[in-house]
Amino acid sequence: MSHYSKYRIAIIGFGVEGQDSARYFLGQQSKKITVFDKAPKENLNTKEYEEKGVEFICGPDYLSGGLKDYDYIVRSPGVYRYIPEIVEAEKAGVKVTSNTQIFFEESEANIIGITGTKGKGTTAQMLKRALEAGGKKVLFLGNIGTPMLDRIEDADTFDWVILELSSFQLIDLTISPPIAVVTNIATDHLNWHKDRNEYVGAKENLWKHQKPTDTVVFNADDEESRKLAKHAPGQVLWFSTKPVDKGTYLSHGSTVIGPNDELAGDIYELQVPGDHNIANAMAALTTACVTGVKPLTAWWGDPHKNGEKFEYDGICGYKGSEHRLEEVLERNQVLYVNDSAATTPEAAVAALRSFKQAKVLIAGGSLKGVSFEKLAKAIQENNVKTVFLIGESKGEIQKELEKVGYKGGILTDFEDMENIVDEARAIARPGDVVLLSPACASFGIFKNYKDRGDQFKKAVQNLNG
């Protein structure tokens, strides 16, 4: 019988991770399992769980009865760690945990954890290619791939498990993986975190508990990362556009040199645009080399012909992910690009710099307590002829655009994606790019960033003429 069998479990939040928790504790034969969620019960997938004895407390007052009658609280990532109900229960002796913490405690897998304000998803995808090119058996879990606890029993049968981890998942993590990767540290989710220090501190948990023999990979071109690296207990490796002593760097502006000064390839061989993707590729390369994969193998993999073209299994063969600088189609010599996964100003700035052509930009969404000053400057400096602003952040972005003296068009009266795309088509000229790169989360108008991107793609594909 499992060591969780005698405990009463409270699961807060019943999204993907909450359901993963429920399945896990059912398998553990826990004494009592109760799910708490602020959504109406009829909106949740409860039937199969209720049939197995899981109880549900739902609705706006879902936590009014408190959580002190449980042994463990399992917090879903979207639930703030320090809400009063959790804090009060913790003071009463209830243990607070998460799927991420449980996975780190219970699994014997070799884990590579990746975090950062932007680029962690792309870096994870590139790293998977690099490791597999080197003959490694790799499992994606967490934000990319299968929920963690569903694979806790067999994760250790893989050479490496890659976890892409957000600050929500890291805020109370007390164990660090043997390899940690930090793409960059800016500011995000200040509508969730108490302040910037808490946000950065959450990220820091990914490497703070490492042993001296463990490794953390940092971005030497990122100021905050350089500061944080000074206190890292593990071995530090770097990736940079400039020469570094330990890690991956660019020589003569484009040649990628891996750890130990071994040649990997050239940035012009990458299939995805933008300086940020060069950084992502170098982060993935550095990490793959830590596991023993040679730089050339990680970069190229096994070249093979597909028709008349050569394709590559390694990093340079990565062609992008859905909703990340995804080229939807070109119509009347106008390129339509879906970058709906750009939910921070920094990600949108990187997208703007990825295209030299004149651009029609669609931006805005929910407010997360971040500054749009850098976004406004990037719009001003990167050949944006018109900006469509949507969502509750449109007023804040417009203020910043006015401050920097932006002279292009600003349209704020559109909310329906089909109408926005139709109007963008009328404004764009041959050679232009219509770019959805919101710089914000999508809460309010769309279900999530995927729904937003899907609506954009559907509207583009339905354009006439």
UniProtKB/TrEMBL annotation:
Binding residue positions for ATP: G116, T117, K118, G119, K120, G121, T122
GO molecular function, one term: UDP-N-acetylmuramoylalanine-D-glutamate ligase activity
GO annotations of cellular component type: cytoplasm
Pfam family, one: Mur_ligase_M
Gene transcribed to yield this protein: murD
One BP term from GO: regulation of cell shape
Homology family: Belongs to the MurCDEF family.
Pathway as given in its UniProt record: Cell wall biogenesis; peptidoglycan biosynthesis
Mur ligase C-terminal domain span: 323-440
HAMAP family: MurD
EC number: 6.3.2.9
Function: Cell wall formation. Catalyzes the addition of glutamate to the nucleotide precursor UDP-N-acetylmuramoyl-L-alanine (UMA).
Residue ranges constituting the Mur ligase central domain according to the UniProt record: 114-287
Provenance organism: Candidatus Blackburnbacteria bacterium RIFCSPHIGHO2_02_FULL_44_20
Protein name per the record: UDP-N-acetylmuramoylalanine--D-glutamate ligase
Top-level taxon in the UniProt lineage: Bacteria
Keywords recorded for this protein, A-Z: ATP-binding, Cell cycle, Cell division, Cell shape, Cell wall biogenesis/degradation, Cytoplasm, Ligase, Nucleotide-binding, Peptidoglycan synthesis
Subcellular locations according to the entry: Cytoplasm
